[in-house]
From TrEMBL:
Organism for this UniProt entry: Mucilaginibacter angelicae
Function: NADP-dependent dehydrogenase with broad substrate specificity acting on 3-hydroxy acids. Catalyzes the NADP-dependent oxidation of L-allo-threonine to L-2-amino-3-keto-butyrate, which is spontaneously decarboxylated into aminoacetone. Also acts on D-threonine, L-serine, D-serine, D-3-hydroxyisobutyrate, L-3-hydroxyisobutyrate, D-glycerate and L-glycerate. Able to catalyze the reduction of the malonic semialdehyde to 3-hydroxypropionic acid.
Keyword presence, Oxidoreductase: yes
Gene3D superfamilies reported for this sequence: NAD(P)-binding Rossmann-like Domain
Record protein name field: NADP-dependent 3-hydroxy acid dehydrogenase YdfG
């Protein structure tokens, strides 16, 4: 038996480890067929085997380096042509945590290519089909570092800031349709990205680290509750509301057409 036909196909980028691997498992459990994207073929194959035999779904692997123009184009073409896709999770991401002066241009560019360019082009690939059917779900994984910067995260935070504003923009663009667009802002989660980025998890305050399962389950609970922006680890809803309110009011306050009094010389 192949997945629940009504659920269609869910695409998970960065499904070979961490949050993406758990998203893939949770979506398989919900009855989606899956398309999994990442570079590590062996990992994708073993995840696909496990999920197919456990949940009776169909899994297709797209082995691709989303930082490579050619591979990205292939994935874009595949997703554009696949009308069975009902959900895309733009989860693949990479980080180098260091000052800009000690981070190579190649590593800075890799963050831009994977975290921004691939996320945008893959969204472009599915949105027209979602619009045609007036249904579909897009989940973009940003980060708390999308609205906060550390001395070692200028580029990474910049890329995640893009994801935050891009996702808000898509939400405005698709308002009034049946297309769901969810922004997820995880905080520190126990995944390989920390080793990849040059800061081992062991160097962090252990009390701040969430498990991948808790993070993904919170994100999907936020989706089920119809949230536009989900902050898996923020307990105080008032903080989220105040932030949303402040950013909207600051924008509205900027629409005055005149310099603020403090900038006017007497
Ligand atoms: N862990 C954390 O603390 C937080 C993570 N996030 C975000 O969560 C998302 C998932 O990361 P996480 O699970 O933590 O980390 P992982 O390192 O475990 O997962 C990253 C995934 O992205 C894939 N990926 C990375 N680079 C490429 C590439 N060039 N081409 C294709 N796939 C790529 C990796 O696959 P492969 O190597 O096989 O290509 C892997 O599957 C990222 O967007 C990250 O920024 C946000 C906030 C906090
Ligand atoms: C700093 C990181 O690399 C982490 N993925 C995060 O977004 O907090």
């Amino acid at each position: 038996m192949n997945g629940n036909k009504e659920m269609g196909t869910a695409v998970v980028t960065g499904a070979s480890s961490g949050l993406g691997e758990v998203f893939a498992e949770r979506l398989a459990k919900r009855g989606y067929n899956l398309k999994l994207v990442a570079r590590r073929k062996d990992r994708l194959e073993s995840i696909a085997d496990k999920l197919q035999s456990k949940y009776g779904i169909t899994v297709t692997n797209l082995v691709a380096d989303l930082g490579s123009e050619t591979d990205l184009k292939n994935v874009v073409n595949d997703l554009s042509a696949d009308k069975s896709i009902t959900l895309l999770i733009n989860n693949a991401g990479t980080s180098t945590l260091a000052s800009t002066t000690t981070t190579s241009v190649a590593k800075q560019k890799a963050m831009v290519d994977v975290n921004i360019t691939a996320l945008m082009l893959l969204s472009n690939a599915v949105i027209p089909n979602f619009v045609e059917k007036n249904e579909g779900t897009l989940i973009n994984i940003a980060s708390v570092l999308g609205f906060y910067s550390l001395p070692i995260s200028a580029v990474y935070s910049g890329t995640k800031g893009f994801v935050v504003q891009y996702t808000h923009g898509l939400q405005e663009e698709l308002k009034g349709t049946n297309i769901r667009v969810q922004l997820v802002n995880p905080a520190t989660t126990a995944t390989e990205i920390w080793e990849v980025g040059g800061v081992p998890l062991s160097a962090l305050d252990q009390a701040t680290i969430m498990t991948t399962e808790n993070c993904v389950d919170a994100a999907l609970s936020g989706l089920d509750q119809g949230e536009l922006a989900t902050h898996p680890s923020v307990n105080d809803q008032k903080l989220i509301d105040a932030y949303e309110d402040a950013r909207i009011k600051l924008f509205q306050g900027s629409q005055s057409g005149r310099p603020a009094d403090r900038y006017i010389q007497n």
